[in-house]
Amino acid sequence: MMKNEVNPILQLPDAIWEAYDLAVDKINNNEQLREHATLCHHRLLQLLEGDSNSDELIPLLSSVESEMGEQAGMFAAVMIFAIIPFVQKQYRAIGIPFSILVDTFTDLHVWMNDYYGKHGRWGLSQIGWILHHVQCRLFKIGRLQYIHKPRWEMKVWVYLQHGTGHLQIVANVKEPTSHEIVGNPISSRGEVMPQMIQLDPKEWKLVLFEDTPVLEVHIQEGGKLSSELCKESMHEAVRFFKTYFPDKTFAAFVCSSWLLGPSLRQVLSSESNIVQFQKLFTLVHADVDKDEIFQRVFGEKPVDLHSAPRASSLQRAVLDYAISGKDFDQGVGFLYLDETKPSF
């Protein structure tokens, strides 16, 4: 019954449903697990209604290893499957199209595949991430995923120059006065420059800072990451939130990802999809990250870089760069939504 009800949404293969049936049998035949499952279902309903905190749910959904054994990873999946009909009701109440629901929950298959690749059996470990979907906080619209954030929380200030549309990114801004704004400029590589600059408040308007509401961009693995698909997705996202969440305003798209790491421009063609994706954003910060890119490109960091697979041009470029002794990084960037410009 569960498969018939939710698989038109989840579109999972039979192998996962076979693992689901085995996990459900184990839960039903263990009184402690049945009680725990009832509690988790109740808490998930509360989460969907906004009356619970996802941080409290994660340990509840993942603390069953002693009872479930090797099937422990399926417990969270079973609980998520059971809540899908309630999520669908929420979508219907808001008026969100069924296609968005289906696209959004393709992530469940992505992360169950990831679990299978690492453990050789079906399960789900990215519980906190998937709870964003359950809460109707994350939506996949076209190629990209989005989460509305009431606050950006980045300690940078972005000023727009009247008349020219030029943006100046500044760190360490002193308390602005009526006649000057003083701070350190941030370079195109996301580096805070040592020299101070002064801006005239009459010429510059603050348009983005840590308290500004933003739309956070995430990139689901798999699929083409072309500039055209990303731009189309962003335009659709603007329309989506204006239509279904008009109270959730935002001044910019923001993204924090290994895909925005400046080092990638040194190893990839300027015409590559990743570099074109980077060009959509203005970089404000970059940090060394030695592991994330390997997780994303290889599934895990290879023990021996010299014998690691070189099946794709990206894998070859990453390995050659790392073998040369250089570190990769990840970046944080934004795309300001200038109301005077119809497109980006």
UniProtKB/TrEMBL annotation:
Keyword Transferase attached: yes
Ranges where the GNAT-like C-terminal domain occurs: 138-335
Coiled-coil segments: none
Annotated GO MF terms: acyltransferase activity
The organism's place on the tree of life at top rank: Bacteria
UniProtKB keywords: Acyltransferase, Transferase
InterPro entries: GNAT_C, NAT_N
N-acyltransferase N-terminal domain span: 9-136
Record's protein name: Acyltransferase domain-containing protein
